[in-house]
Amino acid sequence: MSSYSDLDRQIDKLRRCELITEDQVQQLCIMARDILMEEGNVHSLSSPITICGDIHGQFYDLMELFEIGGDVPHRQYLFLGDYVDRGFYSVETFLLLLALKVRFPDRIMLIRGNHESRQITQVYGFYDECLRKYGSAHVWHLCTDVFDYLPLGALIDNRVLCVHGGLSPSLHTIDGIRVIDRKVEVPHQGPMCDLLWSDPEGSLDHWGVSPRGAGFLFGSKAVDEFTSQNDIAMICRAHQLVMEGFKWHFNKRVLTIWSAPNYCYRCGNVASLFEFRGLDATPRYQFKMFNEAPAETRGNPARPAAPDYFL
């Protein structure tokens, strides 16, 4: 079992965007699973808390996020999933967040996104990156096993439900989320899939077919019914690129947060953090906007090796 000093050294190394050893990854994943296993499908949290959207392997922008929002454990954070894929540093990004979770389990909360999936990560980069950086798929297997233990949501002050994607026509209550067997690969359909894949759609009242091929589009009346039945004030989610960093839907009952600036290193969007301080007579919150990390702070990403047929 790693000591706190061992963990601190690993965190320092990961903060420099340097890899830890495969044995250290294995031990870290075992400790993380033990912690996550004790967290329910919908983990209860209290404000004040800073909520973050998709990161997608943009490591240096994650460092910018902590610079803007304050560091763990001095700030409490909730990350809404999609830590990996598309960016150059999915391995370092996910391992750093996991190490912070193990070191400060009550100060950082990680929930599952639709990219925390074996099938998706084999298509969008994380699998190939693990193979390239560690020489085998072992680290990918270790990390994807941890994905299965990530909670599906969080409930802040019993008033704000946080999920990665959105609602499901199969789920009418938060208690319905609590009884899902989450320790599986993300299914292609059903309530767990919907929580990770669904999107709000302003032109709808209730439900529509999602162009993503998974999850649903949900409208204003679906949100009305769910928030009323569960006595919550709003739903906070990520999952969709927002050029302005955040977007309100349905008269501020649904909020999309996006925390990957200049997504895919080409989209030109800003990113945001949602600092939530509570719901008294009126909601208390602020958004902190940030751009991609300055070019001089970025390393040179490791490029994939040339395929054999070019050699």
From TrEMBL:
Pfam family membership, one: Metallophos
Keyword line: Hydrolase, Manganese, Metal-binding, Protein phosphatase
The organism's place on the tree of life at top rank: Eukaryota
EC number, UniProt record: 3.1.3.16
Record-annotated Serine/threonine specific protein phosphatases domain positions: 111-116
The keyword Manganese belongs to this UniProt entry's keyword annotation: yes
Enzyme class: hydrolase
Reactions accelerated catalytically: O-phospho-L-threonyl-[protein] + H2O = L-threonyl-[protein] + phosphate
SUPFAM superfamilies on file: Metallo-dependent phosphatases
GO molecular function: metal ion binding; protein serine/threonine phosphatase activity
Cross-referenced InterPro entries: Calcineurin-like_PHP, Metallo-depent_PP-like, PPA2-like, Ser/Thr-sp_prot-phosphatase
Family: Belongs to the PPP phosphatase family.
Name the record gives this protein: Serine/threonine-protein phosphatase
